[in-house]
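Objective 1.3, modelling of assemblies. Example input:
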Amino acid sequence: MATQVTTDNVEKVIFDGMVELGTERDELSREATLEDLDVDSLDLVELAQIVEDEFGVELRGDDVKDVKTVGEVIDLVVSKAG
Amino acid sequence: MTRRVVITGVGAVTPLGVGSQALIDRWTAGECGIADGAGRCREFDPLEFLSKKEARRADRFSQMAIAAGAEAVAQAGLAEELPYEAHRIGCVVGTGIGGLPSLEENQRKLIERGEKAVSPLAVPLMMGNAAAAAVSMRHGLHGPCYGVVSACAAGAHALGDASRIIRAGDADAVVTGGAEAAITGVATAAFGAMEATSPTGISRPFDARRDGFVIGEGAGILVLEEKQAAEARGAEILGELLGYGATADGFHLTAPQPEGTEAARAISLAIADAGLTTVDVDYVNAHGTSTPLNDRSETVALKAALGERAGDIPVSSTKSAVGHLLGAAGAVEAIATIEALRRRTAPPTVGWEEAEEGLDLDYVPGTAKPIENGEGPLVAISNSFGFGGHNAVLCLAA
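Predicted structure (tokens):
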């Protein structure tokens, strides 16, 4: 059963996922930009897999191509679920 | 002007430890890094060399190549600033199989959880050129860059190719070597199924009791440079890659040609490429896998190529101390050879005790022995032979 999609749940899964992918936890915030965190297209595909596993929400490359900050990724997942 | 190729840096990750000095010190002392029937690099921690993110983006064979490359590049004095334009420095790294752990892990995910579980990193981690790509990215090298895949001859082929790139004038330096990390379920089972590996888990090349090779892992990376350019920048020259010979048995998928005809020709080509004759050879670093077939056909090949002198030249196998590093073997053994020449000491074929009829060369039993030949530079050949009948031989001097 997929985890319920709430902003808090999504934030936790994405933060944990990004740490797993190699980002330092103390650098993470909703405002942090993907560029500053050195998060590239391969990271985003891996993050999308984690999100889909957890919430059943599918993100494609096109969905995330204009996303700039971690908060925007979180909001995108929440809005796709709705 | 003839362009010559010198070695200005070496780096290794092997079952004898992290670093080229651990390899040569411990092998010369007669130590063996094999445990529980495998030559694992138990002292290697990728996070000492890579960030967490970098480590996730490199299969174990690439991680080891990065670590060995860092040592070699630092020794050559390339770490702080490249002495040549970046596009004049190449990177050629061999492997037998590539990122097998990544392949097997993703195959398992595919079967257990379906397509969507397969990592987007699976292909860039498993591809055979991944180690070459990783090393070139780490040091910002923009010259010719690719992987070499020729089973257990890959490391030697990589060095040979790299030397040709420099001699042809396409680069002034090449960071080159081999890497392998294939102690996995499939590889271990497959080598066992073909009865290539030792059921007793003992690597004792050229010994009558030998019963197969012991699978190992590791990486060896060298910095090769054009000699005059290296001298002009004041680099310390560790040795010279004088010659290279490569042939194919064209005979069998796995078995060496029993007469060793093409292996012998590769040895002769390497010596001739160096501008030398058999009289000049002071030491042989054998392929010496510890399989019944290889060690016999290699002995026949050495006798054919070296003639009457074969019995006078010390012949030892690094695989007696680390197992068979497959695609990394040729590069690690080239490093061991250069360091043996520098110390003027032939390390032993560890564990050799029982002679077999026809296997009657000086395999350096017991302990290391001096390589005798006056005061000048010493010359060695280093043999590498791979499944598929690939023969690659390097002629080295130091």
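The domain at 5-239 of chain B is CATH 3.40.47.10 (Peroxisomal Thiolase; Chain A, domain 1).
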